[in-house]
Design brief:
homodimer; 187 residues; Tetracycline Repressor, domain 2; 9 helices; 76% helix; DNA-binding
DNA sequence: GTCTATAGAGTGATAGAC
DNA sequence: GTCTATCACTCTATAGAC
């Protein structure tokens, strides 16, 4: 029986949705079990460290996605302008106009922060630094400050979009950033 | 005994700290009892609706503070420039350079949002509208968009400051906003 | 007596760990 | 599935104010 080849690697995206929806504390093993279709026994086989290890795996998975799809292109692409524009496309698709929250940002406000402080710090530091590098390549003088502001603005737009129940806020933010970050000339 | 005249009105600030620190789910009655020095009996006398009513009272308290100290001045002060500058002073003091989170913003990302959606929406709508009104009085053409962006930026700066463990991010954001929102001339 | 406030034992349900 | 701890919450008992 049971020829459903579930692997540990398949789980983080499913777990992520549970943590996004209910937060770290609110994500009970019962909900996780339901979302994954796995019994508690199986979950503890995959993640002996329990809930904390599950959340850590999710954060690592999210971090890896951003590293591959956002941070690395920002750092490495020859054409800085298209790299920045590509970041905005990826971010817009990933956060679905603010309907999907940033798990790392939510954990930063939560007391889950105490458990995962270094991962959370690393994620945002990589993002700001990668964007600053691209902006610098594009010839912006205020690259570091502008990068910090852009990442703040994206995080804040997720908060505001959800609070207002209006995806327009997020969409306007992305459009505004596209203009400001890829402006040809600038002080 | 027990001549400690505790009133219901004294509790929201104490409760707020517990919810800020642990989130809605993580704020257990045991923690709340410890933080307030009150037994469960007293807590349920003050808040028959239990934890949900406690959180609602906290949100109402926060909302009232912002209404009095931030939103109303933005709407009513004759001098729009000093009203905006006053908002930034109040926000900077309230959030303590990002060391203190915005409970309403945190709840917006949490699943506490489903319970308090209208209060959360109202808070941010009031903030954006009041700031837009002040910016319009100051003669800004893009008042609504600028207000939305400013509030997003403040929320995002709280996330980023905490994530990076660096109050500098929040401080730079406030300084940048002071410049941008009170610029004499502008398109 | 009534009312409000207190502390805390006790409830069933459910948590995460194993 | 089984474990214990803890959850939100109820309830009893008690106190002083009026």
């Amino acid at each position: 029986m049971s020829r459903k080849p579930v692997e540990r690697g398949d789980l983080p995206p499913l777990l992520a949705e549970v943590f996004r929806k209910h937060g770290y504390e609110g994500a009970s093993l019962a909900l996780i079990s339901e979302a994954t279709g796995l019994g508690k026994g199986s979950l503890y086989n995959f993640f002996p460290g329990g809930k904390e290890e599950m959340a850590a795996a999710v954060l690592a998975d999210v971090d890896a996605w951003f590293e591959g799809n956002v941070f690395a292109p920002l750092r490495d692409k020859a054409d800085a302008e298209t790299a920045i524009s590509g970041m905005l496309d990826a971010v817009d698709a990933y956060f679905r106009s603010g309907r999907r929250i940033c798990l790392v940002g939510a954990f930063a406000l939560d007391d889950a922060r105490s458990r995962f402080a270094e991962r959370i710090r690393g994620y945002f530091a990589s993002w700001v630094d990668a964007l600053a590098a691209a902006l610098a390549r594009a010839g912006r003088k205020d690259a570091a400050a502008l990068a910090e502001e852009a990442v703040s603005l994206i995080q804040g737009a997720i908060v505001l979009s959800r609070a207002l129940g209006d995806t327009g806020t997020f969409d306007r933010t992305i459009r505004g950033l596209r203009k400001r970050l890829t402006a040809r000339r600038q002080a």
